[in-house]
Amino acid sequence: MHLIATGNKGVAEAVLQAQPDVVAAYPITPQTEIVEQIAAFISEKRLDCQYIPVESEHSAMAACIGASATGARTFTATSSHGLLYMHEMLHWAAGARVPVVMANVNRALGPGWNVWAEHTDAFSQRDTGWLQVFASTVQEVYDTMLMAFRIAEDEKVLLPMMVNLDGFSLSHTMQPMEKIETGTFIPPFSLPHAIDTLHPVAYGPLTGPDEYFRFRADMERSMRSSRLVIRDTEAEFARLFGRTYRETEEYQVEDADVLLVAMGTFGKEAEVAVDKLRKEGIKAGSLRVRWFRPFPRLDLAGRDIVVIDRGYSFGFGGVLSMSIRATSRAEPYSVIAGLGGQEVTYHDMADFVRDRKPGKEYWFGVKDDV
Amino acid sequence: MTEIPKEEFILKCTSACAGCSSSLSLRYVLKAAGPETVLVIPACCTSVIQGVYPRTALRVPVYNIAFAAAAACASGMSASYQKKGMKMNVIVYAGDGGTVDIGLQALSGAFERETHFLHICYDNEAYGNTGMQRSGSTPLGAITSTTPSGKIHPKKDIDQIVEAHRPPYMATACSAYPLDLFQKVKTALSIEGSKFIHLLSPCPPGWRYPTEKSIEVGKLAVKTGAWILWEREHGSLRISGPSRAAMKTPLPLEEYLKIQGRFQAITLEQVQELQHSITRTMERIRCELEKPCT
């Protein structure tokens, strides 16, 4: 079925089809529509699900952890400060190996108050043990949400997963979207270590260094094996439903002399910039990084690249740019742009490519040097 | 007389301190709850008492969760069991920090949502697990490691805060009266909705008295009226047996204070203020019992 939907609607429609048992959520702009829509599905009896209207995001994640530990499929959605308020529980969810699925609508952080898109909220959760993926279209939001339950709940993964979508430019933007009949694509959820009173154990008690270390190593083992699960799930999705997703999305890359690298909606805008540059005779291509954790294995050594970063690690650099530098031995031109919802058009992106200075950093729109 | 089951759910060789009354109470809580129980434990003494991985001293599933999150975690479990149509006792066993301070927001949210669970606050009136720092539940005049000359603020009245949520059942209890506790847990678990038991847990190292005196200290708390045992079912208040005599003729408060080293720096004014607080609470209770709420 084809419809015109916002990114938020895309999330809610996918959640409806995944049929979670428990949703615990707290409102925050620009995420609120997601949980409102889910509450409406429940009220209309289209979704048989326990909705917990918690008093904070910290409690939202704690409730999801508690529910998931009993073997329930769980979902929550948040954004910005809500995600930061959950931070402690994000670590807990990953460490407890409960595959909570969450939509995070990327938004800037205060002060000052700013509800517009930025990736710092998600980047700040980099080391929590969550799988993180960034979508660029409403269709991709919907498709990725469907895949998220299957990936996170896979026995070889059993880690929580966050689907990121840019605030307003995706959460509130209407685009065509095809709803699919998922059939058996999302299998029933069965948590191997679910709470069972017939086999009482202690979850997360005092743990000595040796065992603790093994648990952490096991998380990384699962994070690594998630690459294969992600690849298989995306391949199966393509086979069944005809849309192909990979850890990165490439556009005109093969013969390109210069690559624009970005995440989220900027990654799509970059494709338009590539078309513009090619008309001018500049052989550009674009590479959209879809998966942030696990971070893709990129082969960009020696390539001329311009990385557009929508999040910054103060005292270090653009988060995507530094990640690429670390994993690809590349010397990108690092452009910091779009913080706090700053508008960045494909014309601007074409300028970044024309004016690039490999190895340098540039803050777009800032008159003085940073 | 109520028969207390012989079956034990807390095994020997816990990591509790000698004379620990919160582990004694947990023994009776679990006897009352039985095997179809999940315990939710935020950071507190019971995080330690339950034992070290891969062993556990408890014969029911124990879910450890972050300090502020116990009641919220229980909300998720309770919702899931409701969805599954399973009957399960979801019990939070939290200290005073995890209830009246850092855990208060989650507790309030869970009670406002009428979550089906039981929250037990075992109150040793300080952050015991980290070495007895002051909490919101520490009484006036008590020495803790962060109030070395005695606390200058009174104890937070968590019971009135919880009562403001109009729960179907709430009660106080004390580890020195295990039968009373056992019956209250039984009653609480038989009622739908959010239930609260506030359990005074004398703590030998924290309150600075010899380990063999935990029961004596608990009894003195009740006999002096420093701790009043009551239960409130659907709004209606009842004084529990052990507190009936104390409500009429309490022992002098000094009997309770002098046995504990933590009150060695308490001033005369502070003792009077504590005594006034007890008198006021008793008056309020008597007033309510004479003119029950309609």
Describe the structure.
Chain A folds into two domains: 234 residues, 3-Layer(aba) Sandwich (Rossmann fold), CATH 3.40.50; 116 residues, Rossmann fold (3-Layer(aba) Sandwich), CATH 3.40.50.920. Helix content of chain A is 38%, strand content 20%. Chain A is built from eleven helices and 18 strands. A seven-stranded mixed beta sheet of chain A has the order 3-2-4-5-7-6-13, with helices on both faces. A six-stranded mixed beta sheet of chain A has the order 10-12-11-14-17-18, sandwiched between helices. In chain A, helix 1 packs across helix 2 and helix 7 crosses helix 8. Chain B has one domain: Rossmann fold (3-Layer(aba) Sandwich). Chain B is built from twelve helices and eight strands. In chain B, strand 5, helix 7 and strand 6 form a beta-alpha-beta unit. In chain B, helix 3 runs parallel beside helix 5. The radius of gyration of chain B is 18 Å and the shape is globular. Chains A and B meet through helix 3, helix 5 and strand 9 of A and strand 1, strand 2, helix 3 and helix 5 of B. Strand 9 of chain A pairs parallel with strand 2 of chain B, so a sheet runs across the interface.
List how many beta strands of chain A DSSP finds: 18
The structure class of chain B reads alpha/beta
Percent in helix of chain A: 25-40%
Ranges of chain B where pLDDT stays below 50 over 5 or more residues in a row are none
Share of β-strand residues of chain B: 5-15%
Q: Provide the gyration radius of chain A in Å.
A: 20 Å
Q: What oligomeric assembly is this protein in? A: heterodimer
CATH topology of the largest domain in chain A: Rossmann fold
Give a short account of the largest sheet of chain B. 8 strands, mixed
Q: What best-fitting shape of chain A do the alpha-carbon axes yield?
A: globular
Distance between the termini of chain B: 32 Å
Largest sheet of chain A: 7 strands, mixed
Q: Work out the strand percent of chain A.
A: 15-25%
Order of helices and strands of chain A: EHEHEHEHHEHEHEEEHEEHEEEEEHEHE
Distance between the termini of chain A: 49 Å
Radius of gyration of chain B: 18 Å
Encode the helix/strand succession of chain B as letters: HEHEHEHHEHEHEHHEEHHH
Structural class of chain A: alpha/beta
